[in-house]
Amino acid sequence: MSRPMFDEMNASASSVRGHYQDYQRWLARQSADVMQARRAEAEMIFRRVGITFAVYGAKDEDGSGTERLIPFDLIPRIIPAHEWGGMEKGLVQRVTALNRFIHDIYHDQEILKAGIIPSDQIFQNAQFRPEMMGVDVPGNIYSHISGVDIVRAPNAQGEGEYYVLEDNLRVPSGVSYMLEDRKMMMRLFPELFSQNRVAPVEHYPDLLLETLRDMAPPATNEPTVVVLTPGMYNSAYFEHAFLAQQMGVELVEGQDLFVKDNFVYMRTTRGPRRVDVIYRRVDDDYLDPLAFKPTSTLGCAGLLNVYRSGNVAICNAIGTGVADDKSIYPYVPKMIEFYLGEKPILKNVPTYMCRNPDDLKYTLANLKDLVVKEVHGAGGYGMLVGPASTKAEIEDFRAALLANPSGYIAQPTLSLSTCPTYVESGIAPRHIDLRPFVLSGKTVQMVPGGLTRVALKDGSLVVNSSQGGGTKDTWILEDDTPVPVAAAVALAQSQLQSQSQSQSSSALEPALNLSAEGV
Amino acid sequence: MLSRTADHLFWMSRYTERAENTARLLDVNYQTSLLPQSAARAEAGWRGLLSISELRPAYAAHYGDTVVPRDVMDFMVKDEKNPSSIVSCLRNARENGRAVRGTLTTEVWETQNQTYLEVVRMLRNGDFERDPGQFFEWVKFRSHLSRGVTLGTMLQDEAFHFLRLGTFLERADNTARLVDVKFHAAQNEFPGKPVVKTQEVDFYHWSAILRSVSGFEVYRKVYRDVIKPERVAELLILRPDMPRSLLGCLNEVMSNLALVTSDPASETQRRAGKLRSDLQYARIDEILATGLHAFLTQFLDRVNELGAHISREFLMPAAH
Lengths: 519, 320
Fold this sequence. Notes:
- The complex is a heterodimer of chains A (519) and B (320).
- Chain A is an alpha+beta fold.
- Chain A is built from 15 helices and 23 strands.
- In chain A, helix 3 packs across helix 12.
- Chain B is an all-alpha fold.
- Chain B folds into two domains: 154 residues, no CATH class; 165 residues, no CATH class.
- Chain B is 75% helix and 0% strand.
- Chain B contains 16 helices and no strands.
- Chain B is globular, with a radius of gyration of 20 Å.
- Chains A and B meet through helix 2, helix 9, strand 7 and strand 9 of A and helix 1, helix 5 and helix 6 of B.
């Protein structure tokens, strides 16, 4: 089976890509022992700092602990600045359009009236929140923090092309790993940063705080911002605490908040204090037991009413899930054209919507080559990875698909790009993806790069931490080569369908438990 | 500051202090057990140790009625089923710290976290069995470090005061228990009772108690006298400049409480002040005359109530 590959560092067995040359020369000079010692040091520091995630119900080999480290790989993922420049423009464009879309859905629904998206796709979506209809949110911004998952796959010419795999507009996480990975790299290898012009990312918490403060209700001159966490047993708790600390704001749990006279307060040792902006890391369903799941103890009763009155800002807004659903994803390029009148800069993975008879026909005929996903499914449930499935599994899925075609979409299997990575036997190529974090306040901004996740198992496309996923530092490297932006993000609809690969890119979705906050 | 945050801070330092004091107690018992003594006396020592922490029934439930030194040590050091064991205290301290890690400085949090990770590793490696004395030293050292890093890195704001409040309230409780049980064990040697022990045995008994609170050298310096039980009691209860004495602890509780209270008429503060005054104007001969055990039992009750008031006023205020 031919499997076109694209490696971020090695153009071929004997040649290294330009932006990796300095690093590769440096790496070649390092002894295996020194690098091994650095890996051990990194692990020791991560444990001491407590950058762990809790795995409840699981035990380590010795039965003593339930805390895991997300493995950190020493070899950075490097992206030349000109490629990033194009990606950044594309991200601003995409997130701007998605925010316009959410505002439109909860107001005039022009895009539905124009027939671009069928109405039932919205109204039958569990993530559509009728409570938000007609509610005006500050700046008409809904997704203040967006994590856009980007993968790279070779085209027919063997060049790597970037694709958006998924938009995460609810409570995307992982940014703390981006920041900690950089801190670790600078600590372990300071010389690399003096030799290479790596764009800094450390100001992310500052940009985040600015974004959150921008959203404060008018007439609040010194807004009180808080981070709302489900609590210390949440797998992303480290990140919640980290961001609160970095921004110098309180980290609160639902039990710390209460509503009185249509304002939100927190309980403090000196009595109630008003809260103006809530950066919530709790899902919609759990935010307000009076409005959503009545059994939730993670939220604050009455919050929705205060929010609707404009007396508190919630970031991300309630109801953003309507825009990051798999059933909506295929329409994002059209949204960009509809709202912005621009051509999309970043590409979607070609997607077949099985609700369309032609797409269904194609899907049924090519099940063994495609990834088929349930549109409202998450976490890898209700998904078929054609090339990795048995005949029987494919036939079972065919039946399910035929029973409810509109519940499914299909995509070609992508061969994700690889990056050299430390594994037990030495250095070997492993599949990676990228999650930049886009902040939308008065302006749309981001720090260069994002979180690179890597599937540590050979051949695996699954970067989920419970299945051997790890992270890498991501370098946006200033370069002097004047390469046109378009080269990196060219728009050609791809020939992906003709490629056959063995595993699915969609397996990336539950990556690192990052995309879905487990509450 | 969030009430919940204050609660976690308060308990983080209480658990740290409790781990240290448990190590101190175990250490002194362990060192004493290396001296020639009757089996009955040795057993009484270990039994007393369980009584101090009100753990006799819990111990009996897991290990039976016979008090075996090795079992008591295991129970108090590494038994996760015992909420007062050193490993449980260190875990609870760290979990409380983790819940408010954003409020702590990086150094304070990392100290808590590393202490717990290390204790788990040491117990797994058998470091405790290999050298209990060194293990106890290590626990004390980590507690010193935890306090030092708090003093050396934390802003002296509310968070700091709640940490200190937890430390000294817990210490007052622990010192009172220690004095109570040790004097109880030695009641035969008390003034008014026939002296049955030799001077030598006395010396080791009392000096061990002093050492368990790092008070041996302090005693010599303060009294320049041979070790006498009533002076040991005075040092551990009434000396304001002795950092582990009841009055020393209550002074710290008062000053930290005053810094977090906005209400001058607070019931919590009134109770703390009254308790402190009772110590401040007390004399050891009066206390001994009325009965040390009764005095300490009452003291422990009042410390307990004070803790409950702190909790009600600051840590878990009733809903708005």
